[in-house]
Design a protein that fits this description.
528 residues; 4-stranded antiparallel beta sheet; UCP005522; CP_ATPgrasp_2
Amino acid sequence: MTGAFTDYPTTPSIYDETVSTDGGVRPGYEQISTQFDTFGLEDVRNRGEYVSKSYHDQGVTFDFEGEERPFPLDIVPRVIDADTWSHVEAGVAQRVKALEAFLADIYGPMQIITDKVIPRHIVTSSSHYHRVAFDIQPGNGVRVHVSGIDLIRDGEGAFRVLEDNVRIPSGVSYVLTNRRAMTSTLPEVVGTHRIRPVAAYPSRLLRALRAAAPSGITDPEVVVLTPGPYNSAYFEHSLLARLMGCRLVEGRDLVTQGGRVMMRTTHGLQPVHVIYRRVDDDFLDPVAFRNDSVLGCPGVLNAARAGNVTIANAVGNGVADDKLMYSYVPDIIRYYLGEEPILPNVDTWRLEDPTHREEVMDRLDELVLKPVDGSGGKGIVIGPQASRAELDQLRETVSASPRGWIAQPVVQLSTVPTMVEDGLRPRHVDLRPFAINDGEKVWVLPGGLTRVALGEGELIVNSSRGGGSKDTWVLSGDGRRTRVEPRTQRQVQIGTAPQVALKRSEAEPAEQEQQQQQQRTDQEVASC
């Protein structure tokens, strides 16, 4: 094999998405390999450093151990072919539909519990199951307006679901900025591939939020509620508000009057109909949750119950993020949709089950243990990498609160070439596709956020643990962009029947329109 990946190492038990175990470059990466070889390693490295500097200048940052750092974007894109993506897209949409039905049920009739598919205590003991949200009916029946379903590829290259995020999934801002950065940094490479654009996300999100407005509101006021500029995801909050053309507000900007939410403006109070909130449940409404919170708006939950405002995502969605509930999602899909799961789970032991717990306790040094309400990689213990003292402490913790833990085998996440000090080396990745539900269709953003663990052998990819990201390229067709000769102008003869153009679906923009939308979004992102 020749090209940029000539000396690239692979491991038989780990699926590398770029280079096969026999040393051949996989389809979709051949042209990248050739072009990187033409650039030379130093040129590729310099381009990567340029991206890092530009992110620092633009304020594209994240919080790492209390310090704001530029979000690392690796110069090597992750490529997913059209057929593979079609499978992922269908699986993500199926999962979101099932979770929608599940949330509507457990905050209503609870039929799934009556039918003994899930034990009642599994739902009611979740720290994210909020009784104050019971029987609140969203405007168009949607509770999961935005979701981020985390996926990994196992040793065979098959996609599996690692966890669900239907509370306040974050990271889509990096998808938008990553694409812009790669387009300006590797224009020669981007220009030779047919890559599905990501620029439609803000308009899709706005359309879904407007569709969720209370009944009878024809021109809803949509706002983005942020905890404020000190929040680690504030860059994303402000970017999305700007791209959607919505006001970015804090809790102090909102007030409830007569069961309605109003926004303070220079022209007085103005009604708010949809709140895309980026504030956790516990801090959203000091009347219903923490009474010391200054991040939310007192009485907003009562306004939602009265049907005067829609909160997106809905309060109480976190019960579906509970990692113990995750183990039941295949059954949830079968129960509500009557279908087999398209994307399988990772094998999971429920430690509240005495039989499972006994097996896991004997194999702590072989497995991964996760707290059921953890996020950002916090609290995860990887048995083979843990010390004896850590395992002994873990055994005591699990024994004291088995409901709070699950166990899974150590899955060797797939790898993609990543620029490090030694050159291009394999690093583990996951994928967070973002899906938007407007009440009629679940639309999955082509690609999503690929997170990469930058340390050699590291399996936790979260930015809070020092991970970075990659631009995710979903290819259209065979992925190659070829030169198209201009059409010759045809003479129109008088008397011929008029040509009738087929109506283009608003939900599926043509590639040319998507490219133009991408350019407009790039300009907006650059000005943020």
